[in-house]
Design a protein that fits this description.
- Two copies of one chain form a homodimer.
- With about 240 residues, the first copy, chain A, is an alpha+beta fold.
- The first copy, chain A, has two domains: about 110 residues, Winged helix-like DNA-binding domain superfamily/Winged helix DNA-binding domain (Arc Repressor Mutant, subunit A), CATH 1.10.10.10; about 100 residues, Sandwich (Jelly Rolls), CATH 2.60.120.10.
- In chain A, about 40% of the residues are buried.
- The structure holds a DNA duplex (30 and 30 nucleotides).
Chain lengths: ~240, ~240
DNA sequence: CGGAGTCTTGAGCCTCGTCAACACGTGTGG
DNA sequence: CCACACGTGTTGACGAGGCTCAAGACTCCG
């Protein structure tokens, strides 16, 4: 099932000197347009219990009782944990179309915050089990822990360039299903969010992205708009197999 | 339930110059003794289907079909994955008394190898579900993915000293339940195994352990015998909260 | 247009990886 | 019994990668 309408196949000018996209204003406007085709949702739950969060707001806290399931209509959620010394760790993200719960035995394991303005559909476990059309959500929930674990394991063993390349690649796949060379996507995360996920500093993330640009692998327009210019090179850069799990 | 008999409460001489244990040969022999009180197992499955693995042997391979559950009688199992470029990543370990399956949707997610000579009890999911006395195993399996994920997240955000301290602390807790200051334990892992788990090199692991010794936090006798000399300092060193999950 | 926050870039330092040498324990063969 | 080889562990010297600190540019607001 393809939930997300993505802006693809455009042509845009490229300045080889800096590797920045210099597309028209209208193209950018299109890329910022709402990402969800609401007609794509198949069930009577459609339009029920949509919750909105402003950027930075908290959905639930680490340790809170609860095991509800959320599906993202638009925006990006981050899963956060804070160390004793105050360092912030991000365990993962969820983007449009994806579902999450990150709960175990009736408690949420991480704090969920809106990394950008968000719309969510909330379901109880009971509702989810009763709705036979939502098997794909059940699937995703069953593997969410292993998916997050597998990503963490990779990041722990990659250097900064590999981590950043891997991250861009994975987010492109998730934000633009059917992603191909030239696909444009908007990543609504701050450099700090990316850094706290990859276990790096914002400065290192910036430099890594710049290196991807100067290598001709990535195009950027502003901090949040990306286009992959050389997919094969990006995969090599990331030192990656095709996505697992 | 306490499955493991542990050698505790001994006194041994300590050479402050190097921080090495200089205990008697008999004490060491006791620490090497079999760790399992077989009378501790409560069910008729006792003594059934015990499998033995020599150090280095493989229990199952990453991607193999299967979802059997294993409980470790003695020894240590490591969960391994290999990168495209050949780097070895270790996702976790299981030690005496613990249970694991690391399977999802009928396939094992990592290769399981004996990090030391091992004895295992194998159960099918069906047997496990039918045996009401084994609820503690079901509990553990449900959280195994989250447990591994949580550890990976911590390690990703810790520097080498913190990672090594954290690792020693966690393994002490697991190998010596009720671990207290002075508890002695045997860690049957090579420095390479530790390094591939923490995302470090063997040299860095060696230096980290030495630093724990020279700080008066840890005692060592040979590469595999440890005793915690200052628990509070170790916790501070590791930058850790009490163990979660 | 101005201000706050975010992003980017540079300079310098420190941690950790690399390479190399040596120590130690164990098993094997003479 | 010793000599030797081999694998593992330990330590040192050195360099590269990533963090810190600092300054400036850009974005997004009002």
């Amino acid at each position: 099932m393809r939930l997300i309408e993505q802006v693809t196949g455009e042509t845009f000018r490229f300045d080889p000197g800096v590797g920045r996209i210099t597309g028209s204003a209208s193209a950018e406007a299109a890329a910022r347009a709402p990402a969800i085709r609401s007609s794509g949702f198949p069930t009577p739950l459609h339009r029920r219990r949509i919750e909105s969060l402003k950027m930075g707001q908290t959905l639930f806290l680490d340790g809170d009782p609860g095991d509800d399931v959320f599906q993202i209509v638009s925006g990006t959620i981050r899963f956060v944990s804070v160390q004793l010394d105050g360092r912030r760790m991000i365990a993962g993200f969820a983007v449009g179309g994806e579902a999450f719960s990150i709960s175990h035995r009736g408690h949420y394991l991480y704090t969920a915050e809106a990394a950008s303005d968000c719309q969510l559909r909330r379901m109880t476990r009971r509702e989810l089990a009763a709705d036979g059309t939502r098997g794909f959500i059940v699937d995703r929930l069953e593997r969410e822990a292993w998916a997050l674990q597998g990503e963490m394991l990779l990041l722990l063993h990659k250097d900064s360039d590999e981590s950043i390349g891997h991250f861009i690649l994975r987010m492109a796949e998730r934000l633009a299903p059917g992603m191909a060379e030239g696909t444009r996507f908007r990543l609504d995360l701050s450099r700090a969010d990316i850094a706290d996920y990859l276990g790096l500093t914002v400065e290192t993330v910036c430099r890594g992205i710049r290196r991807l640009r100067t290598q001709g692998i990535l195009l950027t327009e502003g901090p949040h708009l990306f286009a992959i210019r050389n997919l094969a090179a990006l995969r090599r850069w990331a030192g990656d197999a095709e996505s697992g799990i």
